[in-house]
């Protein structure tokens, strides 16, 4: 999943738990795992000239920020400090992990290969309980990763996310108000 899917769908699935929290911090949280992990992976690739399994420990774009350890630690810090901003980041980050797991699992399930164990081997939610190494991501360049946007499943998720964001926007609300206040012509 990419930008709009995480922002729109992610913020929507945690909406029931986000009362009193800032939407902008929730939205930042929905992107936080990628904002942490993608620069780490591509930075290491740039510095070392290696990618994937040739890199030590971090073998792809899903590493530290995509772990339960990260999200739980963020949540504990939010609880300890009573920080609504950290609570919003935590919920957003949690939605990111859920959507990544779902978007990985769904195509396998639809092909009759649905195995929950595969999710935990492809997404490091349970790191380090399943070992210290992070999963190997099949992307060797950012362009390679961005080419996944053309996947039908990704296009559906991105469209749904964009629609959710649009419907939440003030522009959409104003347009809906105008439509409901139009007087019929006689």
List the helices and strands and how they pair.
Elements: H1 3-13, H2 23-48, H3 68-81, H4 84-110, H5 116-122, H6 142-146, H7 152-168, H8 170-180
Detailed description of the structure:
There is one protein chain. The chain is built from 8 helices and no strands. It has about 190 residues and is mostly helical. It has one domain. Helix 1 packs antiparallel against helix 2, helix 3 packs antiparallel against helix 4 and helix 4 packs across helix 5. It is globular, with a radius of gyration of 19 Å.
Ends apart, CA distance between termini: 49 Å
Shape estimate: globular
The computed structural class is mainly alpha
Q: How much of the polypeptide forms β-strand, as a percent range? A: under 5%
Kindly report the average pLDDT value.
83
Alpha carbon gyration radius: 19 Å
SSE string, helix = H, strand = E? HHHHHHHH
- Tell me how many strands there are: 0
Largest sheet features: none
Number of domains: 1
- Counting DSSP H or I runs of 4 or more residues, the number of helices is 8
Percent helix range: 55-70%
Low-confidence stretches: none
Key features?
186 residues, mainly alpha, 8 helices
């Amino acid at each position: 999943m990419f930008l709009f899917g995480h922002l729109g769908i992610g913020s929507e699935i945690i909406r029931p738990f986000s009362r009193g929290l800032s939407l902008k911090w929730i939205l930042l949280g929905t992107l936080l795992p990628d904002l942490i992990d993608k620069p780490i992976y591509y930075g290491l690739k740039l510095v070392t000239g290696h990618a994937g399994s040739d890199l030590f420990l971090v073998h792809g774009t899903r590493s530290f920020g995509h772990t339960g350890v990260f999200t739980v630690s963020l949540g504990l810090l939010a609880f300890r400090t009573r920080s609504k901003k950290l609570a919003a980041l935590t919920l957003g980050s949690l939605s990111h992990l859920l959507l990544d797991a779902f978007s990985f699992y769904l195509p396998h399930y639809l092909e009759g290969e649905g195995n929950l164990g595969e999710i935990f081997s492809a997404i490091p939610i349970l790191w380090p309980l399943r070992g210290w190494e992070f999963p190997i991501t099949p992307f060797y360049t950012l362009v390679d990763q961005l080419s996944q946007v053309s996947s039908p499943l990704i296009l559906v998720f991105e469209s749904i996310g964009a629609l959710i964001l649009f419907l939440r926007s003030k522009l959409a609300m104003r347009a809906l108000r105008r439509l409901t206040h139009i007087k019929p012509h006689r």
